[in-house]
Structures are given as structure tokens and as C-alpha cells.
Amino acid sequence: MTRHSIHLAVLCAMASVLAAMPLTVGAQDAGPMQPPASTRFPPPPPPSKPDPPSIPPEEIIRRFAAKEDEMVRAILGYTFQKSVRIQEIGPDNKPTGQLEIVTQEWISPDGKLMAKPLRRPPATLHKLDIERGDSDLLAATPLFPLTTSQLPKYEISFGGKQPLDELSAYFFTVKPRALDRAHAYFSGTVWVDEQDLVIVKLIGKWVTETGDVTSSVLPFSVFETYRQQVGKNLWFPAYSRSDDTADVGGVSVPIRAIVRWSDFTPASSAPAAGAPATDAPRMSAPPQNPAKP
User: Fold this and answer.
1) Structural domains in the chain, sorted by start
2) Which site among 85, 204, 259, 280 is 20 to 30 Å from 293 CA-CA?
């Protein structure tokens, strides 16, 4: 595994999923780091007195935002598969039932994110009642939130440096400078590869003046998301997870959302549905047991 290896989610959304503009209100299994114990917004890494990086933090921020700009432009030329799993979690923290939906996604000429259903195995959920027509299981949020145009809207603070799998990464806390009712903004922590100065992991949620952003169907808000390297210079989402509880008839049911992106293929040479990817993107090893936090 090289130092480039490592490893916000939607079912079907419009082009705003990929755009760098703030989310307009309508409403991610953990990787190599220990996941938060809470199912709500986790705290940032433990406070410490960080050693100053070799590059000024302001320059690191400028560079990773420029990389986000590149990702927004580049992903327009790809098709990819996305798997969304909604799981009910038992007392042993293992899934007792799930719903999985797999789609092939791409950007249409008019800028819309399109989705073609590939498969939806019979659901084994016992308590959640999710209709087959439900298409907004998870809130639609931008895949690349911290583009250059968005930086003035955030307070971004350098927190220090941490090992992340085999990488050495800087981490930054991100908070919106102001909130309103019409738009949502990212609030959380991002990890930036020390060498390539690109965001490789995020933990956070989207917030408005009225609270956390969720879908109209399920309560997930905080996601832990890892990215994968595609080609030489691109880092696209790979794996995202969120844990929460749903009120079902007055009973709190632990639930989990897992989103995986795979088979990123240039749109001009996209394989037919079901064909294997020609070059699997590199990422960090996912957890061996997705149900174990």
C-alpha cells in the first residue's frame, strides 16, 4: 500500500450534489481511525498544541481548496456505481436487516446527476417501513464542499497532524461563519494528506439556522467519509457511514447508513452495467466487519 492509498451521500440528486455552491435546503463503515462513540456529531480530535506545519496553514487551505475545484470539474467526465445500504442494528451491534440500492450514475449534458437503477435485492428490514418509491433516503449534499469560492464562508482552523492509515495528515476544524435558513453549510473536521495537500477524509454534518440537515425519510446527519485515489491525481468519495436511531412506534431503533462509490470510469468508455471495472481505484482497506464500529 503506497502513501497515496487511503480510503456525504445521496441516492439520487440533481447536479447540486457535485456543485461547489452551498446546499439549498430541501433537507457517510468507519475506516482506519477509531469511529466516534456518539451517533451524533462527534468532537474534533483531542486538543493539543500543534507544531507549526512546514507550510503555513493558510497556504495548505488554499491548495486543498484548489484541489477540490479540480475534483468538481473532473467528476463530470465519469460514470460510477453507488451502493446505499440502510441497516437495522441489533444489541450486538451487528445488522439484523437491511435495504440495499445500487445505481449507476453520471452527469447529463444539461448538468443533472442521473441515476440508472442496477439492483435492489429484497429488503430484510424488520422495523423500518421504507416504501419502494422512496428516493430521498439520505440528504443530498455536495461531494466536494470546500472549494475556493466557498472558503470565505467558513472559519477553518489548523488542529495539528495525525497518522491516517499509512499517510501523515493535517487536520482542520471547519465551521460556517454564519447560518441562514435557505442554505446549509458543512461543519466538522477534514484531514489533508501532508504530501499532496488534498482532502482524504471528512467527518461532519450540514447545518442551517434551524438545525442539522437530514432527509425527510431518515434522520442521518453526521457522516464519516473516506476518499479513494482515481488515476494519478483525483480523489473521489469511496466509503461513507453514519449511525443514528429511528423512532418506530415509540421505540428507538439503532440504524446505520453505508454508502460506497466504485467503478469510476471515464464517461466515453463506460462499461455496460454489470461489467467489471478495468482499473480498481486505490484506497485504504475498509473495515473487515462493517457492522463493528
Assistant:
1) 15-31+51-269 (2.50.20)
2) 280
Q: What is the pLDDT along the chain (293 residues), one digit of tens a residue?
A: 444 444 433 333 333 333 344 444 443 333 333 333 444 545 555 555 777 888 999 999 999 999 999 999 999 889 999 999 999 999 999 999 999 999 999 877 676 778 899 999 999 999 998 876 555 789 888 889 999 999 999 999 999 999 998 899 999 999 999 999 999 999 999 999 999 999 999 999 999 999 999 998 899 999 999 999 998 889 999 999 999 999 999 999 999 999 999 999 998 644 343 333 323 233 333 333 333 32
Would you tell me how many other CB atoms lie within 10 Å of the CB of residue 133? 5
How far CA 121 is from CA of 84, 125, 267, in Å, comes to: 12, 12, 27
